[in-house]
Amino acid sequence: MRALLEVAQQKLKSAVRFARPLSVLVCDIDHFKRVNDTYGHDVGDVVIKGLADVLRRVKRDTDGVGRFGGEEFVVVCEETDEQGAALLAERIRQELCAFAFKTDLGMLSVTCSVGVASFPAAGRTWEAMFKATDEALYASKRSGRNRVTVWTPRLQGFAA
Q1: Phi-psi bin for 31: left (phi > 0), alpha (psi -120 to 50), beta?
Q2: Rounded Cα gap, residues 40 and 20, in angstroms
Q3: For 70-118, how does the pLDDT look when each residue is reduced to its tens digit (9 = 90+)?
Q4: What percent of the chain is predicted at pLDDT more than 90?
Q5: Which residue, 13, 86, 120, 144, is most buried by CB atoms nearer than 10 A?
Q6: What is the per-residue pLDDT for 84?
Q7: Contact between residue 112 and residue 29 where contact means Cβ atoms under 8 Å apart
Q8: Which of 6, 71, 95, 135 is catalytic?
Q9: 78 an active-site residue?
Q10: The pLDDT of residue 53
């Protein structure tokens, strides 16, 4: 997590200095506790690795990716505006949704919710950017999960 924060702050400094777009995504596996409770932590670990594999496949070489907490992943996208970030987030969501995990109880499919925020609208510091991305993630979850939400000023202050 520390390495991700260092990369994120450096990419944001560059975006600020050169007035270039930058976007942040937070991906969270929906109902992950239920996966662990129903299928066990070993299957939960496989699901987390599955999302990590999706992220590795769909990200660009210049994007920074890291695990941020239990089942959350952060993606920092240089030279990416909110429209490009929303497209990436949707591709992540669709790829994870389409994947089936083999378990002792049968096949398991999971979904994820994604929050997206972009510089400069969401802020000029890492803390502001992450807070905006987190607010967008919670808006996705409140709206039924398995969706992408792009941060806008109207979401400000609505994170749970």
Answers
A1: left
A2: 44
A3: 889 999 999 999 999 999 999 999 999 999 998 888 899 999 999 999 9
A4: 84
A5: 86
A6: 97
A7: yes
A8: 71
A9: no
A10: 95
What is the C-alpha end-to-end distance of the chain, expressed in Å?
Answer: 22
Place of tokens 């496949």: 57
Q: What are the tokens at 148?
A: 């992408």
CA angle 118, 30, 33 (to 5 degrees): 130
What is the tens place of the pLDDT at every residue in 6-17?
989 999 999 999
CA pair distance 106, 23, nearest whole angstrom: 37
Distance CA 88, CA 2 (A): 24
Entry pTM: 0.93
Contacts of 62 (CB under 8 A, 6+ apart): 77, 78, 79
Handedness of CA 40, 3, 30, 157 (dihedral sign): positive
